[in-house]
Design goal:
Layout: H1 44-50, H2 100-111, E1 116-118, E2 123-125, E3 138-140, H3 143-151, E4 158-163, H4 168-179, E5 183-188, H5 193-210, E6 214-219, H6 231-240, E7 244-248, E8 266-270, E9 284-288, H7 291-304, H8 310-320, H9 323-347, E10 354-356, H10 366-372, E11 379-383, H11 387-396, E12 401-402, E13 412-415, E14 430-434, H12 440-454
Parallel strand pairs: 4-5, 4-6, 6-7, 7-8, 12-13
Antiparallel strand pairs: 1-2, 3-9, 8-9, 10-11, 11-14, 13-14
Length: 466
C-alpha cells in the first residue's frame, strides 16, 4: 500500500521500504496510535505545563491514582532486562527510553494535536474540528541530526527545493550532498509564492522523467532574513504534485505556527532554541503525521546513533514547561524593540539603516504573517551598512551577548555573515537579534548606545572597532 501517491517511482512511504520495520518497533512507542492526553485541546499555556506529568509510570490526573511523580523521572539505564518468551519490551536505550516519551508526546500534540482556532488569546479547540492523528515526535541528538535524517529520506538522484536563505547548517548539508552527486538542489525565494510554485512544477516534471522523488524544504520565517512563506499555498501545490514537504518550524515554534495543519509531511525543530529555551543543551526533533514515514526516520535515528541523552531530555522537558510564558515575554520585547529601532533608523542618528521584523508594517510579508502566524516571534534583523559598523555594535554591547544560537531567555546578537556558509544575498552588515526576557528598556538602551558608538567607526577602516 502507498500512503500517498508520488509523481515518480520509488516514493517515500511504501510499506516495503520500511524493511519489516514493525518487527523492530518498540512496544512502548506505537506509531499506529494517536497520542492522547487529558489536557489535549486546552490552551497551550496549560498544555505545556501539564502534559507528560508522571511519564510512563502513570498519569497523576487519572482518577484514584496516588504516588505518581509529578515530574517524569530520568532513566539512566542503557539496557533493559528481558524474558526469553517476551520480545516486545524495551531492549536498548538507543531504540528508546522512558525519559524520551513525555517530551515526544508533548511535541506531537503541540504540532498536531487537536485542530483549533485562534481566539486572540490562545488556541481554542472546537467540537466541529477533528484531531490530527499524530504519533509521538522523534527526539534527536541535535537539530542537525533531525535535519539530516529528513534530508536523507531522499534517495540518490533525488531533488530538493529549499529557500535561498535558510539555516546555514541545512544549506551546508545540502551543498555537500549535491557535491557528492547524491541529490540536486534548487534554491528559491521562499516568499515569492508564484516563483516557488513554478519551480515545483518544473522540478516535478523533470523528476518524473528521471523517476526521482522531490522534497520541498521550507523555513518560515527564514533564517536570518525573516521572509515569510505562504505555507498553505506552497504545501498544497507540493501535495498536488506528489512532493514530500518538510518545514523547519524553529523560529515560529508550535505556539505560533503548526505546519502539519497546513499539510506539511514533516516538521523539524532545533529543540536547543525556543523549546528548551535556556541555551544549556543541544537537541532536535521531528514530528510526522504518517506512521510509516515516522518509522523510516526512527530507523535512521537508531542506525545512525542520532539519539539524545536522558539528562538533556529531562532539561528540555523542564524548559518546555515555560515555553508559553517565555515566548510571550520575548515576543512582546521584540515587538516594542522593532518599533523603537525602526524609528531610530528613520532619524538617521546612527548607522542603523533598516529593521526587519514580521510584526512591522514595513515588512514585505507583514500582512501574510498576520494571517498565518499567531504571533510575530522574537527574532529581529538589523541592517548596518558594513562589517565594521556591525562589529562595532557587537563590541559595544553590555546587556546583549554577542553569540550564535537563539531562543534562550538571554538576548543574543550576531553578525550572520561571519559564518562562511551564509549566502552573499545576506547583507554583510546584518545583525540577527534573538530577543530574550530582560526588561525591554535595558535592551533598548544598550542597543542605542552601541549603535551610537558604532557611528564613530569609519567604513574605510574596519580595524577601528571597539
Amino acid at each position: 500500500m502507498t500512503v500517498r501517491s508520488g509523481a515518480a517511482r520509488g516514493s517515500w512511504t511504501r510499506v516495503a521500504d520500511v524493511e519489516n520495520a514493525s518487527n523492530n518497533q518498540q512496544s512502548h512507542s506505537p506509531t499506529s496510535d494517536a497520542v492522547e492526553h487529558p489536557v489535549a485541546g486546552h490552551h497551550p499555556h496549560t498544555y505545556v505545563v501539564s502534559a507528560g506529568r508522571g511519564g510512563p509510570e502513570g498519569d497523576p490526573h487519572a482518577p484514584g491514582t496516588s504516588g505518581v511523580p509529578v515530574n517524569a523521572p530520568v532513566d539512566f539505564s542503557s539496557t533493559y532486562s528481558y524474558r526469553p518468551d517476551d520480545d516486545g519490551g524495551r531492549v536498548y536505550a538507543r531504540e528508546g527510553m522512558p525519559t524520551w516519551e513525555p517530551l515526544e508526546e508533548l511535541l506531537a500534540h503541540l504540532e498536531g494535536g487537536t485542530r483549533s482556532t485562534w481566539s486572540g488569546e490562545g488556541f481554542v479547540a472546537t467540537e466541529q474540528q477533528t484531531a490530527l492523528q499524530v504519533p509521538p515526535a522523534l527526539l534527536f541528538g541535535s537539530g542537525m541530526a533531525a535535519i539530516a535524517a529528513v534530508v536523507h529520506l531522499l534517495p540518490i538522484g533525488g531533488h530538493i527545493i529549499l529557500p535561498r536563505h535558510s539555516y546555514n547548517g541545512t544549506s551546508a548539508l545540502v551543498d555537500e550532498l549535491a557535491a557528492e552527486g547524491r541529490l540536486t538542489a534548487h534554491r528559491v525565494d521562499i516568499a515569492d509564492t508564484e516563483a516557488v510554485q513554478t519551480t515545483l512544477a518544473d522540478v516535478a516534471t523533470l523528476a518524473q522523467a528521471q523517476e526521482a522523488p522531490v522534497m520541498l524544504w521550507a523555513e518560515s520565517p527564514t533564517n536570518p532574513m525573516l521572509e515569510v512563506a505562504d505555507l498553505p499555498a506552497l504545501l498544497a501545490e507540493a501535495r498536488r504534485r506528489g512532493v514530500l514537504t518538510a518545514v523547519d518550524n524553529t523560529f515560529a515554534t508550535p505556539l505560533r505556527q503548526r505546519p502539519l495543519q497546513h499539510g506539511a509531511d514533516i516538521v523539524v525543530h532545533s529543540v536547543t532554541k525556543f523549546l528548551a529555551g535556556h541555551s544549556d543543551l543541544v537537541m532536535g526533533a521531528a514530528v510526522v503525521a504518517d506512521p510509516q514515514l515516522r518509522e523510516r526516520l526512527r530507523r535512521h535515528r537508531s542506525l545512525h546513533g542520532a539519539v539524545p541523552g536522558p539528562m538533556e531530555v529531562f532539561l528540555a522537558l523542564r524548559g518546555v514547561r515555560t515555553l508559553a510564558v517565555r515566548l510571550d515575554a520575548a515576543e512582546a520585547n521584540a515587538a516594542e524593540l522593532a518599533v523603537r529601532l525602526e524609528q531610530l533608523a528613520a532619524i538617521g542618528e546612527t548607522p542603523l539603516q533598516a529593521v526587519s521584523y514580521p510584526g512591522l508594517a514595513s515588512h514585505p510579508q507583514h500582512e501574510r504573517a498576520g494571517e498565518q502566524l499567531t504571533g510575530y516571534g522574537a527574532i529581529i534583523a538589523l541592517h548596518l551598512p558594513d562589517v565594521a559598523s556591525a562589529d562595532a555594535v557587537l563590541s559595544a554591547l553590555r546587556v546583549w551577548t554577542p553569540a550564535t544560537s537563539l531562543g534562550g531567555v538571554e538576548s543574543l546578537a550576531e553578525r550572520r555573515r561571519r559564518h562562511g556558509g551564509e549566502p552573499d544575498t545576506v547583507p554583510a552588515g546584518l545583525i540577527r537579534l534573538s530577543v530574550g526576557i530582560e526588561h525591554v528598556d535595558d535592551l533598548h538602551a544598550d542597543l542605542v548606545q552601541a549603535l551610537r558608538l558604532s557611528g564613530d567607526v569609519r567604513p574605510d577602516n574596519p580595524a577601528e572597532t571597539r
